[in-house]
Amino acid sequence: MTGDDGHRTADRDGAARWYDDAAGPVVRPYAMTRGRTRSADGSELDLIAVVIADEALAGPSGAHVLADRTLSPEHLDIVEVSRTRPQSVAELAAGLDLPVGVVRVLVGDLVDAGFVRVTRPVPPAELPDETVLRDVIDALRAL
Amino acid sequence: MTPTRTDPVPLALKLLVAGGFGVGKTTLVGAVSEIRPLRTEETLTEAGRPVDDLAGVEAKRTTTVAMDFGRITLRDDLVLYLFGTPGQDRFWFLWDELAQGALGAVVLADTRRLADCFAAVDYFERRGIAFTLAVNCFDGADRYPESDVRDALDLDPGVPVVMCDARERESVKHVLVSVVEHAIATGVVGHRDTPQTLA
Question: Using CB atoms within 10 A of its CB, is residue B102 exposed (0-12), middle (13-18) or buried (19+)?
């Protein structure tokens, strides 16, 4: 039993709660995601999933994206950086100084809107043979 | 015929760099990365107390973890990412995500504090992730024969042990090559579809 009003309010079913249980305490970075901590489809993007904003999706010079008034400045930053060169989720987070979790949600929005596409990394177990790994060794030696 | 022009999408592979706090993980990543070691902040919601009291809010805690990573573009269509794992034990739960789909790992060790890498060795052994034990030869630290290090850590005979200098690019390249070779030797590729034959 708790005699604290705050707890009772939060516990009560049907109370207006704009965060879900997974959200934890509200932290500032997630204001950019409007409090969401995962993508709409619930999937988690790998740190090395590569985000591609090619012209077919983002429009010439990202025109399609810029025309969308529902997007945040951070969404636009992600598209802008990825247009120049495909970027991994980790690179986007570091380059734009955003938490990885935030980048995941924002990229999820952009995928849903059809402005970027994402390639999921191939786990080593799914590589057809070791040719690629031999190439990795040769390229490392040649660096 | 290609209907639309699309940018070449590189195949991305990842290696992990683990080891105790201050053993030189950031230095190692920086020695080979073409970008300065970037630190990504991962904001995590971890379960705090395993109780369902209060509103659920108080039972969770948000932690920010710094993670080093670097990039090596091997070819236009092939990129290797290095991830330095968080050194503090309380962030172990983050390793599972990093380890997912990893090609292999470097466990960096300091012979003055060998026990600091026990946890990492144990972690990769349990998950069957190929790793190379790289001894960072700090100035002023005593040098031990490879066999002593192997014995002290009770490593499987197949695990490569390499002496290295985490500051030196050539030395780190050698360590990374060792990891990939070991990954090939342990059958990291295509083992899902290959029928296992028992000798």
Answer: buried
